[in-house]
Amino acid sequence: MIKDILNDAETRMRGALSVLHDDLAGIRTGRASPALVERLQVEYYGTPTPLQQLASISVPEPRSLMIKPFDASTLKAIEKAILASDLGLTPNSDGKALHLNLPPLTEERRRELVKHMHHRLEEARIAIRNIRRDALNDMREFEKEKLISEDELERGEADLQKLTDKFIEEIAEQGRKKEAEIMEV
């Protein structure tokens, strides 16, 4: 029973880490990356749709992105979504594709991005702790119903804490890597 709770908790923690990884990929660094815009929501026939489903995104040069819509009629909607986003980028259209030139980041903008990244890291840590709390409540409930012994509960709590610590450390590691990427000039 405890094993099931721990496996479920680990799966959910892995999911939270995966969401964090995707979030961090969308935070701008000095070089162009399709991850910067691929999850951007574009209004497509009244439905918000991720940009990656509407266009191919390539990196022709280290500081520029090219977004080529599969359907030319979506060009204006994609352009509008980029302008409305918090990326601070202005797309240039040639009628068939959009070109995004990434200006070099200023020191101030880098610090803002790092602050934003730390906020995301904290959200991920909170998610991990919430998963731990739910798992602990389940274990205590089992103990209360005499389905597991007190010793099993203690071992389960210790294993859960080890699991939590492991994921919190992975979050910190991702944060360190991303911060180094952002601050790299």
Main β-sheet, in a few words? 4 strands, antiparallel
Radius of gyration: 22 Å
Spans of 5+ residues with little confidence (pLDDT < 50)? none
* Structural class by sheet pairing and helices: alpha+beta
- Average pLDDT level: 89
Query: What number of structural domains do the residues give?
Result: 2
Which geometry do the CA atoms define? elongated
- Helix fraction, binned, reads 55-70%
CATH topology of the largest domain: Topoisomerase I, Chain A, domain 4
Look at the structure and give the CATH class of the largest domain. Mainly Alpha
Tell me which oligomeric state these chains represent: single chain
Number of helices: 4
- Spell the H/E element sequence: HEEEEHEEHH
**What is the beta-strand fraction?**
15-25%
Let me know the CATH homologous superfamily of the largest domain.
Ribosome-recycling factor
In which order are the strands of the major sheet placed?
3-4-6-5
- Looking at the overall shape, the CATH architecture of the largest domain is Orthogonal Bundle
Beta-strand segment tally: 6
Distance between the termini: 51 Å
Structure characterization notes:
- The protein has 185 residues and is an alpha+beta fold.
- The chain folds into two domains: 2-25 and 106-183, Topoisomerase I, Chain A, domain 4 (Orthogonal Bundle); 34-101, Gyrase A, domain 2, CATH 3.30.1360.40.
- Helices cover 57% and strands 15% of the residues.
- It has four helices and six strands, in the order αββββαββαα.
- Helix 1 runs parallel beside helix 4 (150-183).
- The protein starts with a helix and ends with a helix.
- The model has no long low-confidence stretch (mean pLDDT 89).
